[in-house]
Amino acid sequence: xxxxxxxxxxxxxxxxxxxxxxxxxxxxxxxxxxxxxxxxxxxxxxxxxxxxxxxxxxxxxxxxxxxxxxxxxxxxxxxxxxxxxxxxxxxxxxxxxxxxxxxxxxxxxxxxxxxxxxxxxxxxxxxxxxxxxxxxxxxxxxxxxxxxxxxxxxxxxxxxxxxxxxxxxxxxxxxxxxxxxxxxxxxxxxxxxxxxxxxxxxxxxxxxxxxxxxxxxxxxxxxxxxxxxxxxxxxxxxxxxxxxxxxxxxxxxxxxxxxxxxxxxxxxxxxxxxxxxxxxxxxxxxxxxxxxxxxxxxxxxxxxxxxxxxxxxxxxxxxxxxxxxxxxxxxxxxxxxxxxxxxxxxxxxxxxxxxxxxxxxxxxxxxxxxxxxxxxxxxxxxxxxxxxxxxxxxxxxxxxxxxxxxxxxxxxxxxxxxxxxxxxxxxxxxxxxxxxxxxxxxxxx
Length: 445
Fold this sequence. Notes:
The chain folds into 2 domains: 17-110 and 359-440, no CATH class; 127-347, Transposase Inhibitor Protein From Tn5, Chain A, domain 1, CATH 3.90.350.10.
């Protein structure tokens, strides 16, 4: 057993040592993809703060702070205390006034437009999601520890907010598109909220993507409303939503012959040993739903110890979806819908980038904070797709912080040039240095 090393601690190191050196990569990415500039050019509103703080730069610093693990306005200190690395960072009161400006002048849509501008630039650089674009809509609960504007009792017996998020699936999972802050008692199946957040998500995508590519909207049964699905149908969006197991649906399921069932597919597209799918479209009246609607049901044996409900039959558990996808193999759209479970990973990442704590008393200010959390995820996604490779390009925020963002380094100055010297022994120092080099090699905007 190795002997424990005795450590002597002194406070006499040089002043050029910096922590969170990797967070500078996030700030550099925001500048490179034009996010900082687009925020600075928000029309009509964000005033230059006293002391010369550019409001776009302040918003960028807030987003970088959240991406780096902060969750309150006071955490700007982690950037402000290192001017050699991050430059002049606004005070907490100045940052609050910028947020207040966004609320006072109704500039939240302009901030969203700045995010969309940067996203278009990233897509143009080749870092757009691969394959058909899927937008998942889901709500989450955010607890509040005090009575704030818009808080309320939640359906799970808690107290707080009930925001609704729209996130793309697949490798683009770190790239949120839109979010709407809602009171804690907001309904799960409010069609207006779903349409609003879906419309916001579409605004985040380049126009040519929306107009020329097939986009699939997925949600659980909370999105099973005529208004939302008609919005998708009229906008040439495909949809896939959870379908309630009503009594007519149950009767149709139990009346199906065994020959109507086919094997469900696993995540790799291979037949599953446990799970069959069948189509109910011809056995139900779907005339009130958009043209082309289909109902596909899956049955499977629950895992040992699972609790069955009254909708289960003969030891099987059933789940149904309503979709207008045209795949001839019914197992394919059912498998595609099952992948919606990954939205929980996206929501977890959003909460890890500031959404877990909505720190203000005012509802509008917390709505801006939610947008800052989405902007933080944007910056992480842009950094990962443009500057990182391998596992780091897919890592969630917590792992990325440990390996890259919180790396300590030493700033050396020579001939009016600053050199960030990463510790040679740190296992990911090479990846971090290479990431800075990739960003520097991007074409000028």
